[in-house]
C-alpha cells in the first residue's frame, strides 16, 4: 500500500520529479494538514509495516508516528497491533513504546549492531529488548562473577537488571543502572523499586513469549476493500 514511501531520496537537480516522488509529496502535504484525531484514525488502519514506511517519508511524519511520549502516537500503533496482529495481546515491556514493541516483534529483520540478516543467526532477547546475532551479543555481555570481581559492580546494582542466565548481563544496562544508583538519594528505596520492576518485566516477557508461541506473526488483513480486478 505504501511501498512507494520506502525508497524516497532527495534531489537538488532541476529535473522534473519522478511520478512516485511527486505522488509522495502530494500525500505528505495532505496528511500534514489533517487534524491529529483524523490522522490517527487513518493511520491506525494501516499495517505496522506501512506505518514504519510512512514514518520514513519526512521529519514531520516521523515526529508524529515515532514519538514515544505522544498518547496519539501510542494509540495509533496499539490499534494497528490489535487489528493486524490480534494474537499479540500482551502490552509492551515496561519503558518500551508500542512502535518499539512492534519493531522487535514483527518488523526487525537484521542484527541491530552488524546488520546480519541471516534469520538462522538472529535471535530476539526480550531481557535486553534487542535483536542481534550471537557474536554481537557476546561482545556486549559480561558474567555476574566478572562484574562483581573485576569491575566491582555492587550486588544491589546487579539485582536491578535482567540477566540472560549464566551468560550474564548486558553491559549498557549495567552502566545505566550504575548511573541511576549513584544519583539515587535513597538507595535502598531505589533498589527495591527496581527489583520489583524486574519481577514485573519478567512476567511481561513470559506473556509475550506465550503470545509468540501461539502466533505466526502473519498480519490479519481484511481484503473486502479489494475489488474483483484486484485493485484498491
UniProtKB/TrEMBL annotation:
<dbReference type="Pfam" id="PF00646">
    <property type="entry name" value="F-box"/>
</dbReference>
<protein>
    <submittedName>
        <fullName>16643_t:CDS:1</fullName>
    </submittedName>
</protein>
<dbReference type="InterPro" id="IPR001810">
    <property type="entry name" value="F-box_dom"/>
</dbReference>
<dbReference type="InterPro" id="IPR036047">
    <property type="entry name" value="F-box-like_dom_sf"/>
</dbReference>
<feature type="domain" description="F-box">
    <location>
        <begin position="28"/>
        <end position="80"/>
    </location>
</feature>
Amino acid at each position: 500500500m505504501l511501498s512507494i514511501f520506502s525508497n524516497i531520496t532527495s534531489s537538488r537537480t532541476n529535473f522534473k520529479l519522478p511520478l512516485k516522488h511527486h505522488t509522495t509529496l502530494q500525500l505528505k502535504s495532505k496528511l500534514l494538514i489533517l487534524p491529529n484525531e483524523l490522522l490517527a484514525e487513518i493511520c491506525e488502519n494501516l499495517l505496522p509495516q506501512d506505518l514504519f514506511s510512512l514514518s520514513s517519508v519526512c521529519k514531520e511524519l516521523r515526529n508524529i508516528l515515532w514519538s514515544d511520549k505522544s498518547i496519539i502516537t501510542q494509540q495509533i500503533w496499539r490499534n494497528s497491533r490489535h487489528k493486524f496482529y490480534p494474537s499479540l495481546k500482551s502490552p509492551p515491556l515496561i519503558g518500551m513504546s508500542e512502535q518499539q514493541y512492534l519493531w522487535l516483534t514483527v518488523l526487525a529483520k537484521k542484527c541491530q549492531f552488524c546488520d546480519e540478516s541471516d534469520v538462522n543467526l538472529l535471535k530476539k532477547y526480550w531481557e535486553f529488548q534487542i535483536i542481534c546475532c550471537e557474536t554481537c551479543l557476546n561482545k556486549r555481555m559480561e558474567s555476574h562473577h566478572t562484574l562483581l570481581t573485576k569491575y566491582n559492580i555492587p550486588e544491589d546494582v546487579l539485582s536491578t537488571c535482567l540477566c540472560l542466565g549464566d551468560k550474564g548481563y548486558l553491559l549498557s544496562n549495567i552502566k545505566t543502572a550504575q548511573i541511576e544508583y549513584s544519583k539515587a538519594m535513597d538507595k535502598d528505596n531505589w533498589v527495591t523499586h527496581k527489583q520489583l520492576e524486574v519481577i514485573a518485566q519478567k512476567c511481561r516477557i513470559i506473556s509475550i513469549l506465550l503470545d509468540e508461541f501461539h502466533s505466526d506473526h502473519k498480519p490479519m488483513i481484511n481484503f473486502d476493500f479489494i475489488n474483483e480486478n484486484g485493485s484498491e
